[in-house]
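Hi again,

Forgot to attach this to my earlier email, sorry! This is the prediction with zinc ion bound. I've pasted everything inline since the attachment limit keeps bouncing my files.
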Amino acid sequence: MSTLGASELLQVWERGQSLRAPERALLLLDATAPATSPGDLPVGQRDGQLLALRERLFGRGMVSIMACPGCGEKLELSLDTRQFTVSGDSPKELLLERGGFRIRFRVPIGADLVACAAESGVAAAERQLLRRCLLETSLHEHSIDADDLPEDLVEGLTQAMAEVDPGADLQVSATCPACECRWESTFDIVTFLWTELQDWAIRVLRDVHALASVYGWTEREVLELSPWRRRLYLQLVGR
Ligand SMILES: [Zn+2]
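Structure tokens for the complex follow:
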């Protein structure tokens, strides 16, 4: 993975403005690891790469703000990019045989999430995601439609996918100091990293504005300053 300069990172942020979260995930990885094909990665591995990217861009320590489901108190949860299990290679193909059903399937990849993001409603997106991951569905050796799979079998498929690609569902646990309520919730690295990038971009563009206004420098000239030099100039202009 290469490290992006401020100018390239701003371009990534700008290009991602009109995109949905799964597309932003691939945009970030495409820009920083152009040799790989992030859309083909299982979602857990994609997220593992995003955690590694976050570490390179902003460091290991992360602070996630969440509301206690018990009393509504806002909590700051300290996290570390390395606390999450990052899965290794998951099998290309899986098989589930039960009660005469035979299902060959694979785990969801980044490109699946992009394709399903346009669906309206969670249920429709989940159905399409499942369809994309099914390679063969049959009952007593006769091919059947995905919609004809019983609910418990679909749950079995989802569970098997989660087991071989555990990084696809990052979990954090928290305890509320106010009411001692304990809970687990999903940590969404795509949204988290994009929000950080957004905050960073706004800060940098404010710096550009401050220095360009005083010194008449171009955006490029300001961005080419090292962070230390930029900070010193900002102090000199009273920012
Ligand atoms: Zn609470």
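Residues 6-87+171-236 form one domain. The chain has two domains: 6-87+171-236, 94-164.

That should be everything now.

G.
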